[in-house]
Design goal:
The protein is of the alpha+beta class. It is about 35% helix and about 15% strand. It binds FE2/S2 (inorganic) cluster (2 copies).
Length: about 160
């Protein structure tokens, strides 16, 4: 039996007909929309390479059934820059050499953005490590990644303060 769902993906509405209710958000994004920035690492919820934001919250898209998210607002790594202007987290990853293998980095960036909007970590490096612990980096770029998150967070806090002044 076919199932119809609609998602908003990076600001655009997308309609799908699913012939299998078990299709995951990850496979839908990669195979139907060719948004291959979101990576399939372990495919079992252990590495974070597939992290996206669903209604503003970060999730492992390899574990999420697309059908359970009918109507959701999805943000992927392809949707965070504004034209040529990088998202502050992307810029900070470049500045701090947080970009390494390119396989886990999109998930790290999406996780960092989700974590900031959840306002969980503050500026405590240990807390940032804990909040990012669902995202594995096998090459040891963690130091650069934590510095990048701290830097981006400081920049975003500053611009929020300017806006509310
Ligand atoms: S691919 Fe989803 S957590 Fe590893
Ligand atoms: S940045 Fe991907 S394994 Fe380290």
């Amino acid at each position: 039996m076919n199932h119809s769902i609609s998602l908003t993906v990076n600001g655009a509405r997308r309609d799908f007909v699913l012939d299998d209710p078990r299709v995951t958000l990850l496979d839908l994004l990669r195979e139907r929309l060719h948004l291959t920035g979101t990576k399939k690492g372990c495919d079992r919820g252990q590495c974070g390479a597939c992290t996206i934001l669903v209604d503003g919250k970060r999730i492992n898209s390899c574990l999420a059934l697309a059908i359970s998210h009918d109507g959701a607002d999805i943000l992927t790594i392809e949707g965070i820059a504004r034209g040529e202007q990088l998202h502050p987290v992307q810029a900070a990853f470049i500045a701090h050499d947080g970009f390494q293998c390119g396989f886990c980095t999109p998930g790290q960036i999406m996780s960092a953005i989700g974590m900031m909007s959840e306002a969980q970590a503050g500026n405590d490096p240990e807390r940032i490590r804990e909040c990012m612990s669902g995202n594995l980096c096998r090459c040891g770029a963690y130091a650069g990644i934590v510095d990048a998150v701290l830097d981006a967070q400081a920049g975003m806090d500053e611009s929020n303060q300017r806006r509310s002044a």
